[in-house]
Design brief:
about 475 residues; alpha+beta; seven-stranded mixed sheet; 20 strands
């Protein structure tokens, strides 16, 4: 879907159609033979003749043993399979390349069978088995390459009808499909036919916005362009492409929310240290009428929100524009195109402030070495049969995670990723080394952080400070009266 195209300057192109081995929505699904399938403690070879499967919904659920959300989602898939019975077929699939990054797994079938029978989530998913693609068996991963997991491919009457995230797999959507309703879901994670998973930044954005291939551009082609969401690509960027042959500076941002585009434009020219402080949203003030254009506040499917509220931007300027000038140009562009006034401005805001509450700062005690040793022991336990909610490292399942920091700045940076509304400042004046084990995440409260810092000789308080903030104001915005 391309909702809008804004473009100025000169651009000439020759468009050619391109082809790919990948499949996308609307394509016919080829018959598959000899797929390895594990269920009820044994392997078998199965054929999927899509040309003969009528009126049955098939959902391929791409997963991996290291993917916490994948494993935790399997009981839900199992419940849906039991509820809809013969009307649907949910087929988990795991591929050799997705087994475990860096692990030397020589017998994938043995590895998956042990995992499936012993993991507390998979062994209770009694209606499901899993397809297993070995190193040389790449049919489904060849047809549906993807950058993220879990990843779902929907097939009905021999046609691919959806490529989505797992949140779409629910009773409402399945009933809708079985009732014959057409869907226009955003394509998640994979890439549409004719496009590579890797965005080619040497080509103009116009190519991907219109889905064609360009072979030539005039030597002096300077332009700026804003388009809507581009199917099949994750959020990505190339912000320093200098072409010495054409003497141009080029920046390209693919599928970015408005706020992220502004962050790139405003903070990229900054020094690295200052730039990092603006990464979190707690250094942003939005003076806007409706936050849905900036955040998914209505609990839409993430991919659908991104499809409606993310944009791709590109500017190609003469080489005389240095980096700062290029990003200033981009910010002025965004202000004009989105009817906003985005700028850096000093404001008084509430902050989380770290101070010292005593001279009793905990010195290093060997905790880092012991923690690293424990990690090594855990990594050696293959296959990891259990994804226990209390022990899992996946914050999406457990609600918190922990890490050791060797200075107070590291603690401050970690807290800045968790404090949504208040910037976190270090006013402790402490520059020595630490071994600070910090537990943080969405389920950790401000009081919990206070207790953790107090144990290490620090204090955390809320106080007002005047800070430079990224401010986005909609033109015509009037603040509500208190």
């Amino acid at each position: 879907m391309k909702r809008l195209i804004f473009m100025t300057g000169l651009l000439c192109a020759v468009f050619l159609k391109s082809y790919s081995q990948e499949l996308t929505v609307g394509d016919s699904m080829p018959d598959l033979k000899g797929l390895r399938f594990f269920k009820d403690g044994k392997y078998s070879d199965i054929d999927l003749k899509f040309s003969q499967i009528k009126d049955k919904l098939i959902i391929f659920d791409f997963w991996a043993p290291w993917c916490g959300p994948c494993i935790a989602g399997l009981p839900k898939m199992d419940s849906l399979q039991k509820k809809f019975g013969d009307k649907i077929m949910i087929l988990p699939i795991v591929g050799w390349k997705k087994i475990l990054d860096g692990a030397k797994i020589y017998d994938i079938e043995k590895y998956i069978s042990e995992f499936w029978m012993k993991n507390s989530y998979t062994k209770r998913s009694t209606s499901l088995g899993t397809l297993v693609e070995g190193k040389n068996d790449k049919a489904l991963y060849k047809y549906f390459p993807n950058a993220g997991l879990p990843h779902e491919v929907w097939v009905m009457n021999g046609k691919v009808i959806g490529i989505t995230s797992s949140e779409y797999v629910n009773e409402v959507e399945i009933n809708s499909i079985l009732s014959g309703n057409q869907k226009n879901w955003a394509i998640a994670g994979g890439s549409p036919k004719g496009k590579s998973n890797k965005y080619d930044y040497t080509l103009p954005l116009l190519v991907y916005a219109y889905g064609a291939k360009v072979t030539a551009l005039p030597e002096k082609s300077f332009y700026n362009q804003l388009s809507g969401y581009i199917d099949g690509f994750l959020e990505s960027k190339k912000d320093n492409l200098f072409d010495k042959n054409r003497m141009i500076n080029k920046v390209t941002f693919i599928n970015h929310p408005i706020l992220r585009l502004y962050k790139e434009a405003v903070i990229e020219p900054m020094e690295v240290e200052k730039r990092n402080t603006f990464r979190s949203n707690n250094r942003t003030i939005l003076e806007i009428k409706d936050s849905v254009n900036y955040f998914n506040t209505r609990n839409e499917y993430r991919a659908e929100w991104e499809k409606a509220h993310t944009y791709s931007y590109e500017a190609v300027l003469p080489a005389i524009y240095n980096q700062e000038a290029v990003f200033n140009y981009m910010r002025e562009d965004l202000n004009r195109l989105f009817n906003l006034n985005g700028r850096l401005e000093k404001r008084k805001v509430n902050c989380w402030v770290i101070t010292r509450n005593s001279d009793d700062i905990k010195a290093p005690t060997g905790l880092q070495k012991q923690y690293a040793k424990n990690e090594e022991i855990e990594r050696a336990k293959f296959p990891p049969y259990e994804y226990d909610l209390k022990k899992s490292k996946d914050v999406m399942l457990r609600g918190w995670y922990e890490s050791i920091y060797q200075n107070i700045k590291g603690v401050m940076d970690a807290l800045n990723t968790q404090s949504v509304n208040c910037p976190v400042l270090d006013e402790s004046g402490y520059t020595g080394e630490l071994e600070f084990l910090l537990r943080f995440g969405p389920k950790i409260s401000f009081k919990d952080y206070q207790k953790q810092l107090a144990k290490n000789g620090f204090y955390l308080k809320v106080a007002e400070r005047e800070l430079e903030m990224l401010v986005l104001t909609e033109n015509g915005f009037k603040p509500s009266k208190k």
